Amino acid sequence: MDVLLPSLVDGLLIGFVYGLAAMGLTLIFGVMDVVNLSHGALIVLGMFGVYLLYTALGLPPYVGLFIMLIAGILLGMALYGIAIHPLLGGPHLSTLLSTFAVSMVIIGVGTALFTSTPRNIDFSLGAVQVGNIRLLGTRVVAAFVAIIMAVGLYVFMYRTHTGKSIRAVANNRDAAELVGIPSRRILALSFGLGTMLAMVSGGLIATLFPFNILSGGVYELKSFVICVLGGMGNPTGALLGGLILGLIEGFVPVFMPVGWTPVIEFTLFVIILLVRPSGLLGAR
Amino acid sequence: MRWLRDPSFWVSVLIVALAGAWPLVTGSASGREDMSLILMFVILASSLNIVLGYTGYVNFGHIVFFGLGGYIGFYLISQMGWHLIPAAIAGAIVTALFAAVLGAIILRLRGAYFALATIGVNEAVRALIVNWDALGGAVGMTMNFKRYQAYGGPMNALWVAYGLMIVVALLSVITSYGVRTSKFGLGLLAIREDEDAALVLGIAAPKAKTIAFVLSAIFPALAGALFFFKNGNIEPGDAFRLHMSVEGIVMIMLGGYGTVLGPIVGAATYERLRGYLLTSPIFKDLQLAFAGVLLLLIIIFVPSGLVGWLRNRFPKVRRVLA
Lengths: 284, 322
What we know:
Chain A is mainly alpha-helical.
């Protein structure tokens, strides 16, 4: 119990950040039926954005995050115009490949500029002691930021006109067009939001763990697992999926060698896809 | 034989056979290494094309068959002392059985869900092998040099493996042609266009998809056994590189999705291009980014690939370019 409880709490805190990353992926899938294979590269972009602003300009990581938020929306909208819009309505393969091509470009340029040496953001907020649990300040803040972003996204989607338009387009693009929703702009904005979530969560992860230009792949795969756990296209489910994944990562190493975590995660992933493709929260 | 009178059959087979025979004639070791890589890519792309191009299922985990065949073959040769040929065949049989079971389960998923599941399968198998100590775990296994004596020394073993690589490449191209021109292949194309309509028309889609999946698993498994035998060591990172699956897809797109000749042309073009970019001083660091831009341009502007474009533009060449 002495080992279990702290690792569970740690897992939960990280789970919120994972969930936030996965929300970006699931939002894009839900709205335009596109699996964004540049998700990992965008996460890395967020990591390096925050890192560079911190090391070069001395901006605190949380200010960097805010800049990533704006940069993410703009970049995402541009990417939508280049790599998604011309291919919507075609076979799945074309958007899978075009987003993968975007990822190759980002990682390729990134590797040329920064090589693949590991980096970390040397930034600490101390720690809080609750009972026998020691909570790292950066992890608590990261979880807190992730929760605020998730709540913000929820309010935006359900309480604002634009958010309702996004949901309408996700539901039925033709019908949304008929009632006068400019679907192209809404789709671009949704891709922007998805990119923003990826980059912000990347920035948050950068404050927690060391990373390099190739780290995106790991978090992209985690996001896939989370999306499938929560149901593809379901942002609330993604948060739940993130927590489950965080718990697994906190829980498994207590009982068996840490190398088994991915075996369990990916087996669970394939099983959930087969048994409940609409996710744990979805209808059968 | 109807095939033997079809010029497009001969075009595809002769291109692979002549290109493969060239290093045998010149005896150049560097030519052999280049061509060996191209042939391996031809095998990967042609076999993937059966599932991706003909059946329309996006498989990101194609490389799992390459890795499994490689691991089983390598284990049988290095630990059990088997000869290369039975070891590679055993690897292919086990991999085909794995594909049959896996296919029967995951081919129920469609579209993006199937694509995601294949990524999951590749990662799960890789993670499993990393934890499997008998197979060397994360560091993998190394071939004892004494093993190569049975093939007339290490130098000769490379030529033996190369000769077998040509045979496997030819077999995979012939299989790809055979599927494309058979009634079974027409069924697969119907599934690609509209699976529900195909079911209504009486095509046993689940069975056809599983057979296509198994066929596409055999050749990369053989290629994996040959490649890692030549390589002398095997590790999970090399055997289950997700990136290589995607490279296979890029080759297919480059050459022409759903054609017999497309994956061959695509594999050769991609390998040459990559070799050029890796060695050119300007693009050395940016080769990945450059390949990405190229891929994006192809998908947006020439979605049917080189061979597909020729077929659409000049209908007369369809007789020669399958």
